[in-house]
Design brief:
Elements lengths: L7 H7 L7 H31 L3 H9 L9 H34 L2
Length: about 110
């Protein structure tokens, strides 16, 4: 990968980031960003769990078993799709975070 030229403003902000080398600082920023995305998904999932009083798997089982009273109401269908999307997104962010940590720990040795 070719070297990256950073503006003075970016360099000044990077000085506040943890890490000795610029690469370490950028790696830490990426990890923090991935964790932030993961927490965003978890927050949305918790909101839906609180709203329906169950996990997504329980909701999905109730959905498939026709146990939800308003199953075909627009808000319930929308919640199902969003909830399912947040579940998938959470898995993707978690997998990306794990893979990134493994790959960067190998390159840092």
């Amino acid at each position: 990968m070719p070297p990256v030229n950073l503006s003075k403003d970016v360099k000044e902000v990077l000085d506040f980031m943890p890490g000795k080398k610029t690469e370490d600082k950028i790696i830490n920023l990426i990890i923090d960003s991935l964790i932030f995305k993961l927490r965003e998904c978890e927050e949305k999932i918790m909101e839906l769990e609180a709203k329906y009083g169950m996990t997504f798997e329980e909701f999905k089982e109730s959905w498939n078993a026709e146990k939800l009273a308003d199953k075909y109401a627009h808000r319930v269908e929308r919640d199902y799709m969003e909830w399912e999307g947040f579940q998938m997104e959470k898995k993707r962010w978690l997998s990306t975070l794990k893979d990134f940590k493994v790959s960067t720990s190998k390159s840092r040795k």
